[in-house]
Amino acid sequence: MYQNRRISILHIPVDLLSEEELEGAVKSLLEEDKPGQICLITYLDIMKAQFSREYMNCLRSSRLNIPITTSVVFAARYLKKEIPRVFNPFTFVIRLLGVLESSGKSLYILGSRKKNILKSESNLKTSFPGLHIVGRYAGSFSPQEEKNIILAVHKSSPSLLLTGKGLKGNNLWLYRNRKDFPAGLSLWGRSCFEVFSGKSAKPVNSSTGRIIGKTLMSILLPWRLLRHFLFFILLTIEKIKNR
């Protein structure tokens, strides 16, 4: 069984995983004889978990919690904990698919619009010819379709169930249905199929310009500033408790 190296931020485990360790971690997780969820997390996910017991349980049961924003690094530094490596979400998914391809593994894709998912399938087959795509379905499905999709995933037994927009609950959809999934990994990526299909641009890593831009947006949109302020208050309370 894969042994995580983690820190805790507001009771949420955050993985300390380097670029060099990623391949070995994924291969170890794929050897486990049970479903395992991977979550790409921001400070908003950590915040949401403070007010939702179900989401707290989702993130605490996740096999990997990968930070994708510098706000998680700020939290770790403020709490005087080891600093996690921040991954670009798109780059992380690409690296994950590369590991699957080199290991002869399989993939099921679920989410987004039908046009996007079909284009994504085509582009993925071109980019990862050794990766076996065993099924695909667009998002925003009915309850009856959901049952059929879950059954199809179970029967095809993919190494990775990669999901995107259109799932009710996003990460929670995977968490709620985990008992019906076969052994393997699952991951929800906000816009992965929009990027794979060419509908959206590839997200870039945080830069000074982007950080300044986000700061200005927080000033112009007070509710964003309030979220950051609440996060800082919760971190401060946690820091005081741990003294």
Describe the structure.
This protein is an alpha/beta fold and 243 residues long. It has helices spanning 19-30, 43-50, 53-61, 70-78, 89-102, 114-127, 143-156, 171-176, 192-196, 208-220, 222-241, and strands at residues 6-9, 12-15, 35-41, 64-67, 106-110, 132-137, 160-163, 184-188. The strands form two sheets. It has a six-stranded parallel beta sheet with strand order 4-3-8-7-5-6, with helices on both faces. It has a two-stranded antiparallel sheet with strand order 1-2. α2 (43-50) crosses α3.
Produce the secondary structure layout.
Blueprint: E1 6-9, E2 12-15, H1 19-30, E3 35-41, H2 43-50, H3 53-61, E4 64-67, H4 70-78, H5 89-102, E5 106-110, H6 114-127, E6 132-137, H7 143-156, E7 160-163, H8 171-176, E8 184-188, H9 192-196, H10 208-220, H11 222-241
Parallel strand pairs: 3-4, 3-8, 5-6, 5-7, 7-8
Antiparallel strand pairs: 1-2
Helix pairs in contact: 1-5, 2-3, 10-11
List keywords for this structure.
Rossmann fold, globular, alpha/beta, 243 residues, 2 domains, two-stranded antiparallel sheet, 11 helices
